[in-house]
Amino acid sequence: MYMKIKINDNHFSKNIKRLRLASGLTQEQTVAKMNVLGSPISRSTYSLIEMGRGNIFISDLVALQKIFKADFSQFFEGVGPER
Question: Residue 54 has what pLDDT?
Fold first, then answer.
């Protein structure tokens, strides 16, 4: 069973995009690397996550952490407890 997390926060989606750009990757390259790591994610689904309109599987967040060589805290910078 895979767990999804719902993060309806602009900071989270902006952080993912910032980390991707800092890694010098396009969305297509990022998704290709995620696919190699076992994620079936599509570019359109990934795009929704970066726009703050899609949910992310925890396993995909782990893949992004490895691809971007980032600390998990970097994904959550500026994310508050409010809903």
Answer: 87
- Determine the Cα–Cα distance for residues 27 and 1; give it in Å rounded to an integer: 26
Instruction: Evaluate whether 70 touches 44 at the Cβ level (below 8 Å).
Output: no
Which pLDDT tens digit goes with each residue over 30-45? Answer: 999 999 999 999 999 9
**CA–CA dist 43, 46 (Å, integer):** 5
Cα-Cα end-to-end distance for the chain: 26
The token pair that represents 71 in the structure block: 């600390």
Cα dihedral sign, 44-54-17-66: negative
Residue pair 14/74 in contact (Cβ under 8 Å)? The answer is: no
